[in-house]
Amino acid sequence: MPNPWDGASTLLLKREGFPALASTSAGLAFGLGLPDAAAALGRDLSVQHAAMIARLSGLPVNGDLEDGFGPAPEDVVATVEASIAAGLAGLGIEDTTADPASPIHDFDHAVARIAAAAKAAKGRILLTARTDNFLHGRPDLDDTIRRLVAFAEVGADVLYAPGLPDMASIEAVVRAVAPRPVNVVFGPRTGPVPLARLEAAGVKRVSLGGALYRQAMGSLVSAARRLKVGDFDIMGAAPSSAEITALLPR
Q1: Over the Cα atoms of the chain, what is R_g?
Q2: Cβ count near 208 (within 10 Å)
């Protein structure tokens, strides 16, 4: 489930045959010159961006909607309702706080937020519940599993913990929340592994977050360095303007 960040990337990924897409808060934020943080983007912009991807592609789209744009369960419910109204197939809600001093919600409050989201989402939209412990200096696998199990028990459809350190940790998460499906981003922090290895571990969905956006920026940097020394042979396999235009709706 790759993550486009604009119209052209959406249509190119659709052309390559992916059956579902997801938005990326990082790609959207960086493209606008903003940090990747809920306070920077806001609910309306984030939902509208994901809806654009859905509208252009005609594919199921999962919205990367960060912490649900507010600390209270009612804030998360508002994000679920906005996502449904926008025609999204799914959305993700993190247990982050947008407060660098205390980046992860306390356990009970985190569970209450997901419970409220799940009640609003049930039968209407797919809810992915995510804990960001490992992204915020809290490498506690036991607490991560405790949170994911609790999220599953209150009704989350998919569970997600980015930044898990190794395949053993991913396998432990899959076992703990079974039979609910688990999403990973690429694979463990030790590095990407083949899709077949993730499938064998029981992973049901793989997303890429902001990786494709960063890959595109890496190509830009490489081209810029060649241009700086006078090398204009930089286009490689880049699609032509006409190729992209042909994909756009008339």
Answers
A1: 19
A2: 18
- Cα atoms in the 13 Å half-sphere on the side-chain side of 128: 28
Residue 173 and residue 167: Cα distance in Å, rounded? 10
Give the integer Cα–Cα distance in Å for 67 and 91. 11
Residue at token pair 């992973």: 203
CB of 129 closer than 8 Å to CB of 159:
yes
Give 10-residue mean pLDDT values along the chain (250 residues).
98 98 97 85 96 98 97 98 98 94 97 98 98 96 98 98 97 98 94 94 96 96 96 92 94
Q: What are phi and psi of 187, to 5 degrees?
A: 170, -155
> Which residues sit opposite 127 in a β-bridge?
91
Pairing mode of beta strands 205-207, 158-160: unpaired
Put simply, whether the predicted model's pTM sits higher than 0.85 gets the answer: yes
H or E stretch covering 90:
strand 90-94
Helix (H) or strand (E) holding 196: helix 195-200
User: Angle, nearest 10°, between helix axes 107-121 and 73-85?
Assistant: 30
pLDDT for res 38:
65
